[in-house]
Amino acid sequence: MKVALGVTGGIAANKAAEIVRLLQDCNVQVQVVMTRSAQEFVRPLTFAALTGRKVITGMFGPEGAESVPNLDSAVEHMAVAQEIDALVVAPATADTIAKLAQGIADDFLSTLHLATKAPVIIAPAMNVNMWEHPATQANLAILRERGVHIVEPDSGYLACGMIGSGRLAANETIVSAVMDALHATRELAGETVLITAGPTREPIDPVRYIGNRSSGKMGYALAEAALRMGAKVILVSGPTALKPPEPVEFIAVQTADEMRTAVLSKLEQATIVIKAAAVADYKPKQVASQKIKRKGPLTLELEPTADIVAEVGQRRDRQLVIGFAAETENVIENARKKLNSKSLDAIVVNDISKPGIGFDSEDNAVTILTADREIEVPKASKQQIALEILKVVSSLEQRRSAPQRTSR
Ligand SMILES: Cc1cc2nc3c(=O)[nH]c(=O)nc-3n(C[C@H](O)[C@H](O)[C@H](O)COP(=O)(O)O)c2cc1C
């Protein structure tokens, strides 16, 4: 999740640093954009240090008497409009609110506002008379009408010495509004989710392997959904054509053995393990050191790979373990057997005999089995299915930690 945070020229500009930190805690990447006036209140360096990225301070590169306009910088900056999932302006001055309402685009922030299709959240902060002025209220009405989310300011003592409305809303309230706009929650905050994804490749010789049709889409969608729910994510993936979501700890593997090593080495850090990878059940007993030449018929002798799910089930202590099963017959019955025999907390079952779902498709339809529940999730995008799976995981997690919380 990427957010542009516009900081404008008011006393509350210094509070934006804490907003950056809170957003980062929710796995949100922040690109700070400052107006010229904002830089009179806080130095860009503060935000650059917090975010580890350049702060955008002007349309044509950094502004200042000695700076030369730079077109590359302008193009690079405009890419931000396409990349972001939300634009937040906090604090928003009366001046910037007026510009956004009227569609003026005379600096980077106001141009970005016109150039992006991402949701916009504005947290105004100003003197009470500025806030109550009919011009400001009319501008806010225009923005609200357009679907912009206004985080209402609080009332109280203002920096100017007056009392009334206009104090920047609490940072947590602003961050909650951003998370709502991103359809993100904090349900898995504090959890570390270890997810396996994709196929494995079991080598036959230096150029050939036994693989399977898994695309990794389900596992990557789970990683993305877990990030949106506030978790730290470790993604162990077989070879796929997908780009890992950010920010995850990414471990690329090829074979079932490599996946086993990676999973067991990270098990201690994890509180939830989701085994969505399609790990090969068999591998060639002998791997030829040279490319096998075509002669007559060839018989490959296979041996079972390590059963990673079962091993995780045995070794885990506090972790919730969720497995996947791709079945073609006696779907629920087979999956329930696997749930019990491998000591899993839940199993997500795919009926891969149905067309248009499962392997390598965008959609899926699953049944989630727990010890006492059977939850049908009808055909939907893998992103939607991932959210449904994680909601069940989150409810298992809450149930598990409830007695400990009350006894503390
Ligand atoms: C000390 C000081 C504090 C200010 N605080 C605010 C404020 O809290 N809210 C506001 O709307 N304007 C405030 N202003 C006025 C803005 O800085 C001014 O309108 C500026 O043009 C805003 O530019 P910007 O919207 O591009 O950041 C303040 C000005 C000064 C000198």
Describe this structure in a few short sentences.
By secondary structure, the protein is of the alpha/beta class. The protein has helices at about 15-25, 40, 45-50, 70-85, 95-100, 110-115, 130, 135-145, 170-180, 215-230, 255-265, 310-315, 330-340, 380-405, and strands at about 1-5, 30-35, 85-90, 120-125, 150, 155, 165, 190-195, 200-205, 210, 230-235, 250, 270-275, 280-285, 300-305, 320-325, 345-350, 365-370, 375-380.
- In the sheet with the most strands, the strands line up as 12-11-8-13-16-17-18-19
Largest sheet: 8 strands, mixed
- Stated plainly, the CATH topology of the largest domain is called Rossmann fold
Shape: elongated
